[in-house]
Amino acid sequence: METSELVFVDLETTGGVAQRDRITEIAVIRTSQGQEVSRWSSLVNPQQPLTPFIQRLTGLTDEMLANAPTFDEIADEVERQLADAVFVAHNARFDYGFLKNEFRRIERSWHARNLCTVKLSRAMYPEHRKHGLDQLITRHDLSCSARHRAMGDAAATLMFYQHLLNEFGTERVTEQIAKLILRPTIPPNLPSDVLDSLPTSPGVYRFWGEQGALLYVGKSINIYQRVTSHFQDDHRLHKSQQLSLQVFDIDYSQTAGDLGAQLLELQQIKTLKPIHNRRSRAAKELKTIRLKQNEHGYLCASIEHHIDMADLAAHYGLFKTKKEAEKALNGLIKSYQLCPSLCGLEQTQGACFKAQLGQCKGACEQKEQALAYNTRVTLAMQGLKLKSWPWEGPIGIREHDSFSDIRQFHVIWQWCHLITLNDEQEFYDWLPEQAPEPSFDRDCYQLLQRYLFGGKSKPDVVVLPNWSVT
């Protein structure tokens, strides 16, 4: 893949939301075979005032921009400067997204292969945790004549690239860049401009086939990147190739973050039943395991289909079928020498079959003490035990994507996703008569477990007033 022509780009803007804010300065440095060939920059009249924060950060003022050209006046020159080259920027999503929106405002389509030097730094220096431009300048002893000005930051990004060439060599750096900018193969039945219209923000995407058949629903924190990845692999993977041949259209729904994307994906897979989605389809009736003591004081397991959401800690495991639950029990019986009869898998009077083989310690005949057997059962079941809802009432989880300025407020109760609203105030306008009855779902339970308690970042949780929804 040809990557010899690169344009290093940096923008200054009135804020961080591409749909609302505007470009105030643009700088482009073109290189060929690693050598600089030209520089170009321009101030841009954003047609909106700068905030005091932006003025302090960049040193730009409204007066400096008042007589600068507007973007539509320099759009031809911008496109010429960026033509026939890989678009390179530090946090490319930001700069690339702003340029796409500026071109969209003047009803022009623009697209380029783009390379994010944050991702390039992570690939080349995986031992480091932070890859911001300030960290790269300090770590690699780069110079920056004017931080937070377009040409200064573009030049620092170019210096980082040249540093990589010196340290790792042209061949290795070029190979890594080729991996990061691998061009997708456009499906033969898909209009060429569809991929260009996809946002680089979080959300759900849908592949549609001929005559409106829904083929596939997926989610990502970067819709454009994830969709194109399907078609980058289509020549190697049979499933991807078959899907690519069937796609006639793609649409999407943007969300405020990863949680919103995952919740919407789950909901749409279960309700719309896309042809190629299998894993997350709703089970007709979940099965679970419960324990209770028999008349001799031994804990007995039974497979049940009723799940008491108010007492989830009394349930062990969530299974789509009875066979799946029986398989789990058989594994525990073997690992912990439990009794198949007391686990409900044998209907026998007296000794079970494994007791006759010496593989059961005789709880079925009361030969093993109940306390010893029950301790082993409790230990065996611990990994399957469900977690009770830890709050007294519902919670809201806030998400905000600063790039698209989308905000969402997800209302959760007893591990069930009730509704997604725009903000917390909508919740108070909405409850309680509109509250749907909670419907327990295994995938949603596992998703919320991971999101609330399994991640590195702390979710923005709001404890909401308790109210009955059943």
UniProtKB/TrEMBL annotation:
Hydrolase in keyword set: yes
Transmembrane segments: none
EC number of the protein: 2.7.7.7
GO molecular function: 3'-5' exonuclease activity; DNA binding; DNA-directed DNA polymerase activity
CDD domains noted in UniProt: DEDDh, GIY-YIG_UvrC_Cho
Reactions listed under catalytic activity: DNA(n) + a 2'-deoxyribonucleoside 5'-triphosphate = DNA(n+1) + diphosphate
Gene Ontology, cellular component aspect: cytosol
PROSITE patterns reported in the protein's UniProt record: GIY_YIG
Pfam family, one: RNase_T
Domain called GIY-YIG: residue spans: 200-278
Keyword annotations of the record: Exonuclease, Hydrolase, Nuclease
InterPro entries the UniProt entry points to: DnaQ (IPR006054), GIY-YIG_endonuc (IPR000305), GIY-YIG_endonuc_sf (IPR035901), GIY-YIG_UvrC_Cho (IPR047296), Ribonucl_H (IPR013520), RNaseH-like_sf (IPR012337), RNaseH_sf (IPR036397)
Subunit-structure text: DNA polymerase III contains a core (composed of alpha, epsilon and theta chains) that associates with a tau subunit. This core dimerizes to form the POLIII' complex. PolIII' associates with the gamma complex (composed of gamma, delta, delta', psi and chi chains) and with the beta chain to form the complete DNA polymerase III complex.
Name by which UniProt lists this protein: DNA-directed DNA polymerase
